[in-house]
Amino acid sequence: MWEIPPHSLYAMLVVFGLLVTATTCRLILKRLKPEKDYTELRQRIQSWWWMIGILFLCLIVSRTTAIILFAFISFLALKEFFSIVPTRQADRRVLFWAYLSIPVQYYLVSIGWYGLFIIFIPVYLFLFLPMRMVLIGETRGFIQSAGIIHWAVMLTVFCLSHIAYLLMLPVKNADAGGMGLVIFLLFMTQFNDVCQFIWGKLLGRHKIIPKVSPNKTWEGFIGGLLTIALVSGFLGPFLTPLNFRFSLLAGLLISVSGFIGDVVISSIKRDLEIKDSGSLIPGHGGILDRCDSLIFTSPLFFHYLYYMSF
Amino acid sequence: MERVLKILFFALIVRPIVIIVLGLNLRGKQNLPVEGPSIVVANHNSHLDALVLMSLYPLSRLHKVRPVAAADYFLKNRYLSWFSRNCLGIIPIQRTGRMRKSELFAGCHEALDRGEILILFPEGSRGNPEELSEIKRGVYHIVHDRSDTRLTPVMMHGLGRALPRGEALLVPFNCDVIIGETIPDAETGEQLVESIKASFLDLQQYCITCRQTG
Q1: Across the interface, which of B172, B174, B211 has its CB nearest the CB of A86?
Q2: What's the pTM?
Q3: Which residues are listed as membrane-spanning (chain A) (predicted)?
Q4: Given CA atoms B109, B115, B118, B122 in this order, what sign does their dihedral have?
Q5: Interface predicted TM-score (ipTM) of this complex, two decimals
Q6: pLDDT digits (tens, 9 = 90+) for A119-166
Q7: Closest chain B residue to A271 measured between Cα atoms?
Q8: Do the strands B117-120 and B150-157 form a parallel or antiparallel pair, or are they unpaired?
Q9: Rounded to 10 degrees, what is the CA torsion of A225, A226, A232, A235?
Q10: Which chain B residue's Cα is nearest to A80?
Q11: CA B98 vs CA B81, B104, B160: distances in Å
């Protein structure tokens, strides 16, 4: 407890430095243009302080605490998913079982049982839930409901639990430890969102998928891709067991999959005709709005890393 | 003593459940009346409705908030009656008896006279999950000769999935709580019912958990 590997500590300090910079910039902006309304920006930055504060605190306290935090995030995300998608009233009890998969999945993480962690949801829960639905005996809307429930659990529990499993991998970069991997993945994923946004604002001309997300442009995507690959190339050897070249590839993977996660959740919201999936995090929307890219980057980064280094 | 029980019940049980198991997409918090006399009229799907509405209030004001509830249900046995009076602080309404209107709502008027905030479900009992049912005229009999009382509409959605009528298992769901602006005074009962209904429908469009099929 309370032992932070040096590289992870530096990374945390850098993130706090960025937060301080963001807060300072906002205060300066407010001073320069007092007539403009910066409420959303203020809320956004304030929420970042909370999210990062809670995350780092849990990582520092103990591995188990961090795993519990990720389990709780999965719970919030699954709840939000179930709340916005159409589910049949008859399936309430099935949903209850779906929620119970969270403690099981994260227990498997905490004991490091890789073999079952990787198949528990895609195999066992996948077969169990439709069986439970059959017992209810309502066949109308069966296919749609089974699809929605399973997809929700896959995205919010299975995919996100990979972040927690990073903490259980044998430590190959002792200077960074398991938390180095988590910080690397989370930081690169969020930084990718920021970079794609900024490059899109600066140069964006050609839209990629105007029907899903009108703000996504090829310029933003490629600018983000290159920036993230480069930053990741230098940051990877520092926080992960990967060398420069493989870190560069990890950056490409995170950038592309982060983009896909973002637009997949956007499509869900478009389909439901809602703007935000919730109002849990002021300035950001719901938890799904914040975890959208992460849902895709975490399993892909995890398995890339696992294949390369373990 | 009642006041302490109510605060403990909400601080230790209701609030943690509302924050962790449920989750609120809250809109229009500034419209919520914090001073009485006023009446919050909300649609009704679940036992959770009143608890969620009351949990919006700071603990220090909780003793001023009184849900109006059916006597035949909430006072039906000793234990439930004790709980309803001490932990919830309900104002019981005799639905079944043939009482005169003035008698029927005497409890409500006394509470309003004391500057309290009533929580009232004008649909009467909990309807089918997430469906609006007929709005009853009772609320008109309370407000029509009280110009001092504000009527605030609240639309809730999602709680009927978390805990519908006749179910004991609470399944986690987020829910929408949309608080609207004060309903204007009405000349007749029908008019008031119409404007409550209109504001419910108006607030419903801000609900984000509304996309469910049957």
Answers
A1: B211
A2: 0.94
A3: 6-29, 49-78, 104-127, 148-167, 179-199, 220-240, 246-265
A4: positive
A5: 0.90
A6: 999 999 999 999 999 999 889 999 999 999 999 999 999 999 999 999
A7: B211
A8: unpaired
A9: -150
A10: B174
A11: 22, 9, 31
pLDDT computed for residue B214 by the predictor: 37
The answer to whether the Cβ–Cβ distance between A279 and B171 falls below 8 Å is no
* pLDDT tens by residue, A20-75: 999 999 999 999 998 888 888 999 999 999 999 999 999 999 999 999 999 999 99
CA separation for the pair B84, B69 (Å, rounded)? 9
Cβ <8 Å between B212 and A87: yes
Q: Chain B contact for A103, CB < 8 A?
A: no
**Low pLDDT (below 70) residues in chain B:** 96-97, 211-214
Tokens of B41: 């009229």
Is B171 in Cβ contact with A92 (below 8 Å)?
A: yes
Contact A288, A222 (CB under 8 A): no
Strands (E) located in B45-184? 65-70, 91-93, 117-120, 150-157, 175-179
What is d(CA A226, CA A255) in angstroms, rounded to the nearest whole number? Answer: 9
Whether B170 contacts B159, CB under 8 Å: no
Tell me which residue has tokens 């849902």.
A295
Rounded to the nearest angstrom, the gap between the alpha carbon of residue B30 and the centroid of all alpha carbons in its chain is 17
Continuous segment of H or E residues that includes residue A241: none
Residue A282 touches partner B, C-beta closer than 8 Å: no
Q: In what order do the strands lie in the sheet with B175-179?
A: B24-27, B175-179, B150-157, B38-42, B117-120, B65-70, B91-93
Contact B158 A79 (CB under 8 A): no
CA distances from B178 to A76, B34, B40, B161, B181 (A): 21, 16, 12, 17, 10
Q: Round to whole Å and give the CA distance between A55 and A16.
A: 12
C-alpha–C-alpha distance, residues B16 and B2, integer Å: 21
Q: What is the pLDDT of residues A230-289, one digit of tens each?
A: 999 999 999 999 999 999 999 999 999 999 999 999 999 999 988 889 888 998 999 999
**Cβ–Cβ below 8 Å for A89 and B172:** no
Specify the CATH superfamily of domain B1-205.
Glycerol-3-phosphate (1)-acyltransferase (3.40.1130.10)
- Residue count of chain A: 310
Locate the domains of chain B by residue range.
Answer: 1-205
Give the separation between CA A146 and CA A269, rounded to whole angstroms.
20
Distances (CA, A) of B12 to B17, B65, B80: 9, 18, 19
Distance in Å, alpha carbon of A59 to nearest chain B alpha carbon: 21
* pLDDT tens, residue by residue, A163-204: 999 999 999 999 999 999 999 999 999 999 999 999 999 998
Q: What residues in B contact A80, CB-CB < 8 Å?
A: 23, 174
Distance from CA of B173 to the nearest CA of A (A): 5
Q: How many helices (H) and strands (E) does chain B have?
A: 10, 7
Exposed/middle/buried for A287, CB within 10 Å: 0-12, 13-18, 19+?
Answer: buried
